[in-house]
Amino acid sequence: MKIPEEFLTKMERLMEPEEYHTFITELKRKIMIHSLRVNTKKISVAEFRRIFPYELTPVPWCAEGFYYPKGVKLSKHPYYYAGLYYLQDPSAMLPVVVLAPQPGERILDLCSAPGGKATQIGAATNDQGLLWLNDINPKRTKALLKNVENFGLKNIVVTNNQPRELAAAFPAFFDRVLVDAPCSGEGMFRREPRLMIAWRRDYHPRVCVPIQAELLKDAAQMVAPGGRLVYSTCTFSPEENELQVKEFLAQHPDFRLVGIDREGVSLGRAEWAGDVQLRKTARIWPHRARGEGQFAAVLERTTSGEQPERSVFSPPQPAASSLEPFWDFCREVGIAPPSGRLFREGDDLFLLPTELPDLTGLNPVRCGLFLGELRYNRFLPSHPFALALERQEARRELALAPDSPEVIKYLKGETLLATAATPRGNGWLLVTTGGFPLGWAKRVGNLVKNNYPPAWRMK
């Protein structure tokens, strides 16, 4: 697929001849960079490297990021289904690294789907605080929800709202806001050649620039005094990057740029914006680092003051008698009931985030952890509930080796035969691999009936 001539002409004008030649030569190479990011909420980097069966090479700018060998299908490994890692381009790891999320903070990922950066934030904060994830596309929020549930995250809110609606509801509310903005996608031309056609038709920089400016304006309103706003794109266009940040700073004097100093990451092209402070922004170039194109800017709000409070969502507690099947299930499997606020909506039971604000007027897709369904005096556990459990937490555990045929059968939804290692007696089991939860099953006589949800199964 041919790189658009207009793009080539612009980059040739912007870059020195030698660099331009190197850049375009690299962009035209048919190469796929394979990388993953470890879920440190579930496993330490050191332990993951000990148990992982393939060679790993560190990503310079992300302590949890690693390159892995080509030809390895890690989307088919049981550890992937246990949520131990996320497959992600290494350059895409940079925005959350410079966002520097901390446990206990209120954090907003404004354009969150499909969830790569959301899972990175959740792991970095150890799922402590409030992680608000938003996307305007209802279909994309489904993929987002699946990814954060696979990572075992609980203190989440997923919404499907226009950014201006959130800005009106949450002025100066969040400690950190990430705007990974829709862009012309030039940094992904090599990885996804179809984007070259989309660039001409739908995602030209002139289309994206006003959208990005509006997103930044809405996002700025939600940053608390002293808070941090990170703006990122996966494009090379100065109009969408340095010039976009320059215009933002001109209109928002209460924000300042914070420098980015990371191994393998280049300085922003201040000369393209005519402003030396834009050197504090950052770029990843495919001809200078092992990754695709990425831009990031860290903007800190300099005003002082306190975060305004918003009334907390306080639903009525479910009647104790209605929760008896849930407590019975926890006792049967041998897990500690989750601590926190339980919320019942119809048959569905949820564990709410500790600091869930009032959501009146918004469009929530998910609040907290979906535990399961209370039906006909029985509790049917959800898949996310299993993935959110701690390692080796259940007494009734069916442990399957990560390299066994049985674990693949389980992940494909097949019924298993009970063995000597299967807990005795009929009833619910937590299926694990390497001690990490994979999902639920139920022993009935000599059979282990699979409860792995169809939409999640290995194909």
Walk me through what this model shows.
- By secondary structure, the chain is an alpha+beta fold.
- The protein has 2 domains: 297 residues, Rossmann fold (3-Layer(aba) Sandwich), CATH 3.40.50; 67 residues, Roll (Nuclear Transport Factor 2, Chain: A).
- It is 27% helix and 24% strand.
- It contains 14 helices and 23 strands.
- The strands form 4 sheets. Strands 5, 6, 7, 8, 9, 10, 11, 12, 13 and 16 form a 10-stranded mixed β-sheet that branches.
- Strand 5, helix 6 and strand 6 form a beta-alpha-beta unit.
- Helix 1 runs antiparallel to helix 2 and helix 8 packs parallel to helix 10.
- It starts with a helix and ends in a 9-residue tail after the last strand.
- The model has no long low-confidence stretch (mean pLDDT 95).
Task: Based on the model shown, name its key terms.
459 residues, alpha+beta, Rossmann fold, Nuclear Transport Factor 2, Chain: A, 10-stranded mixed β-sheet, 27% helix, 24% strand
